[in-house]
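Tokens for chain A. Residues wanted.
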């Protein structure tokens, strides 16, 4: 039962996202004649209330830093996983954490247009990764929690999970107006990353839950900051660019060109 409880906890962001998507679809269908196309496309940045879910996840993780029921659940979950799968060693989590981000580029190259173009999308992705990296790295060193396998003292929060959920939220933001299933897929991969971190005895349950919160919050914060940052850097300039596949001298790649 504990295992299914942790799966539910990690899938919570995706389920809440699904509910918000359905609600937004109903609202937009009722006011389709009144709302401009740009607003229906969801080009506005996330609102403050959208930070509630990541705040709850991070708060859960912080509670585990004390001697309480949350921390005891960490130990009992580890014991159960190690008892059921003592020799588990599948390190797909090292690659899965990047899958939602790679999907953004794959979909664009396949002709499925995202909310932002390649350049702005890449800038948003890099910004979210930077925020996620700085925040998780700092907290890891401040907290100094020992990993379940005793390898070091940088367990809290899970960086792999934070990275995966940051990428999943980025994929969600870019493609939720195209199909909600793209966002679901991203969150599924992120959840699998977190679960594998526990199965591989690299992280406690609370590390993974907090990592999911840090990842989601980092991307949402990036979407709030980026329009102002872009305006500060570029002013009123605009950039035109093209990105096309190329094959030359038996090597495949991408050709990029841009002008201000």
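Reply:
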């Amino acid at each position: 039962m504990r295992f299914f409880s942790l799966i539910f906890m990690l899938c919570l962001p995706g389920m809440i996202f699904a509910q918000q998507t359905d609600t937004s679809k109903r609202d937009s269908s009722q006011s389709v004649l009144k709302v401009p196309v740009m607003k229906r496309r969801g080009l506005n940045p996330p609102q403050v209330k959208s930070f509630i879910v990541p705040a709850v996840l991070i708060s859960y993780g912080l509670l585990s830093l004390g001697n309480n029921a949350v921390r005891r659940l960490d130990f009992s979950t580890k014991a159960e996983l190690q008892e059921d799968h003592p020799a588990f060693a599948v390190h797909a989590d090292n690659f899965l954490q990047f899958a939602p981000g790679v999907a953004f580029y794959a979909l664009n190259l396949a002709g499925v247009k995202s909310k932002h173009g390649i350049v702005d999308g890449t800038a948003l992705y890099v910004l979210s990764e930077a925020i996620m990296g700085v925040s998780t790295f700092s907290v890891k060193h401040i907290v100094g929690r020992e990993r379940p396998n005793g390898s070091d003292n940088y367990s809290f929060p899970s960086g792999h999970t934070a990275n995966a959920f940051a990428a999943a939220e980025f994929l969600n933001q870019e493609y939720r107006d195209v199909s909600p299933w793209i966002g679901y897929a991203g969150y599924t991969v992120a959840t699998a990353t977190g679960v594998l971190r526990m199965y591989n005895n690299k992280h406690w349950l609370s590390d993974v839950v907090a990592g999911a919160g840090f990842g989601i919050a980092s991307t949402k914060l990036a979407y709030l900051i980026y329009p102002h940052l872009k305006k500060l850097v570029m002013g009123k300039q605009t950039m035109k660019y093209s990105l096309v596949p190329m094959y030359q001298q038996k090597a495949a790649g991408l050709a990029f060109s841009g002008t201000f």
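The mean pLDDT is 82. The longest strand covers residues 240-248.
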